[in-house]
Amino acid sequence: MAEVITMPRLSDTMTDGKVAKWHKKVGDAVKEGDILAEIETDKAVQDFESEYNGTLLFIGTEEGGSSPVDSVLAIIGNAGEDISALKGGNSQSADAGTSATEAAGIPEENKTEQNVTDVETTKPVEKEEGTASAEIPAGVEVITMPRLSDTMTEGKVAKWHKKLGEAVKEGDILAEIETDKAVQDFESEFNGNLLYVGTEEGGASPVDTVLAIIGPEGTDVSGIISGGGKKSENKTPVAEAKAETSKTETASTPVAASTGERVAISPLAKKMAEDKGIDVHALKGTGENGRIVKKDVESFTPSAQTAQVAETKSVAEVKAAQPVMNFVQGEDSETPNSQVRNIIAKRLSESKFTAPHYYLIVEINMDKAIEARKEINSLPDTKISFNDMVIKATAMALRKHPQVNSTWHADKIVHHGNINVGVAVAIPDGLVVPVLKNADQMNYNQISAAVKDMAGRAKSKGLKANEMEGSTFSVSNLGMFGIETFTSIINQPNSAILSVGAIVEKPIVKDGQIVVGNTMKLSLACDHRVVDGATGAQFLQTLRTYLEQPLTLLL
């Protein structure tokens, strides 16, 4: 029986997908796990693999075309099977899609991918209002400013790794793009020469505007520039750029960038790894050519070595990582705001002024938690922190109080089925919040490994955008700085954030006697539109029980 394959939703913000490349043609045999196509989303190009065996009977979206999520992408079944009733009329047939090659006089038996590409050598550039249309010459690719996070509206080019006129290969790092959350390497998906730079180093431009043009050396792209994008004020022609390259190469200082290593992983395995909070670099692939597949994620167990690779930095190291200010007695100085700092200011201001905050504070006896941590860390290859214990207890408490794990919308409240805890991490530019997906299903070792890994990569700007999306609750811990009590601004769209203070040794009353004990203060900031006072208080009561009686986490 034929199976209908629909355009997958490969990211939270994806509404339609573009078929960058088909790896199978109509009539080809398909096996489960074979790569059917490369799908370009609003964030990246991902391999899309088949979950069925059979023959590719129908292609609903031709190479280079786009279609909405859940529309018919392909049909797989038995050779010769009648699928007319399955096409549904909302996707063009493979036969219709190949009419262009027939019109060009290409014989049926020679309709290779290259033939189709050669026929479709020109296509219109999306143009801004008031500009003339332009056509793209054969072999030329227009690169637009990518949307690297769901809140990104513009990107800043922190550094170009290629100069005008230089050769570019698929996989080469073109530039470092600074988003509202992090600085990320942006790599080329094409081979050719860098013919045009739309945004100079240090400049910013909106998402989807022309960032660069890549194509055969010497190609005239002036028509594309005038018809489809805005020139920066300081554009350098290719010829001039080549002449300047020799002058500047000796003076320029190389800047170390992340490896940009691409991990071969199926979309399903990638989604599962994200949901479980697993770093894909820690996975070992058993699929074709070492590709990571579903079973690799299901069988993965983080080792203690993984947990210890990215030990959190000491307070002194964190301080050392802060931006260096050139202080001169009696003189003011200025530091330009980074993209990250600007967005932090914008989003926290919006949160503070749109969400009615209120705060609940509770003091917790940590004596038994200290004993439990000591026993846990006495086990081989185990080292967890109090922060790991707080995250685990918080995730379990959220499971019992789903109202706190919710989001306000204009006409409804969304109660999230997954518990994704965001952990605030200080970086030189401000603050980022990497997310532990399904934290309630993680054990202490998994939480410890994930937090250390993401915190380490956050400080080196190595986090990916999808690792900072999808949180349903946030935790901020300043206890390591000796801060006993503080309140935080809610990280929207969350409805609450937990502020964790230091563990303090002090006199306490126990069984009518004054004894020395260890206490820790927690502050819960709540959005009153979603979390009422009683609901927040009940959540803190449950969290208190879990931390004061650690064995209750097992019940």
Helix content: 10-25%
Q: What number is the mean pLDDT? A: 79
CATH architecture type of the largest domain: 2-Layer Sandwich
Widest sheet: strand ordering: 17-26-25-24-20-23
Q: Which structural category fits the helices and strands?
A: alpha+beta
- Which ranges are low-confidence, i.e. pLDDT below 50, for 5 or more consecutive residues? 89-133, 229-260, 304-321
Number of domains: 4
How many β-strands, per DSSP?
26
Q: Could you give a short account of the major beta sheet?
A: 6 strands, mixed
**How far do the termini sit from each other?**
46 Å
| Strand-residue proportion | 25-35%
Please, how many helices? 14
CATH class of the largest domain, named: Alpha Beta
What coarse outline follows from CA principal-axis ratios? globular
- If you compute it from the alpha carbons, what radius of gyration comes out, rounded to the nearest whole angstrom? 27 Å
CATH fold label of the largest domain: Chloramphenicol Acetyltransferase
**Name of the CATH homologous superfamily of the largest domain:** Chloramphenicol acetyltransferase-like domain
Task: Report on the architecture of this protein.
- The chain is α+β, with helices and mostly antiparallel strands.
- The protein folds into 4 domains: 3-119, OB fold (Dihydrolipoamide Acetyltransferase, E2P) (Beta Barrel), CATH 2.40.50; 141-244, RNA polymerase II/Efflux pump adaptor protein, barrel-sandwich hybrid domain (OB fold (Dihydrolipoamide Acetyltransferase, E2P)); 267-300, Dihydrolipoamide Transferase; 315-323 and 337-554, Chloramphenicol Acetyltransferase (2-Layer Sandwich).
- It is 25% helix and 25% strand.
- The chain contains 14 helices and 26 strands.
- The strands form 7 sheets. The chain has a 6-stranded mixed β-sheet with strand order 17-26-25-24-20-23.
- It is globular, with a radius of gyration of 27 Å.
- The relative contact order is 0.09.
